[in-house]
Amino acid sequence: MSLFGDGLDAAVQKAFTRPAPKSAPAQMRYLVKQLKGTKQVAQMLRISQRTVERYVKDQIKKPRPDLAARLEREVKARWQPQIRAKAREKAATTGGIIIDTRARIGYIAPVGTTDDARLRHLTVALPPQYAARLFDAQQQGATDQRLQEIAAEALKEVYFQDGGRRAGSLEEVRFTDIEHIEFDL
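RE: above sequence
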């Protein structure tokens, strides 16, 4: 499970204009249509082709919990790709992204300053360039650690340094022990 990657996906999914299919047969029909065949869906979901065909014909309606989770994840990953792209583009060019987190946040600063990491709950609007960096890194398959580093850089710039108006000697922000993180566009 990717905390940052899943959070970014959830933020983009809020922009959907129609709900994704909810029932297993409807989800299976959607995937068959998208992947152009039952064989490809069966390979992707690691089930038999005959099982896929039975879902498509409404002969099976209730999947096992692990299959239901895979099915829902795959449908949401493919649902409304143009809406998803527009939402990312808007966040990366004009809107920015809002990060709401509760985590242990500290920083490295010159000697004589209080730099102990402490638990903070922050809700910060990040400018579009950081939204673009987060989405670009996610698209390129960056690890959760890399996404966390980008978010820490953004918090350093926006929250601690206030766009260069204070804490100019701040070197690095440590962003650890994340209890909660949520993104919004």
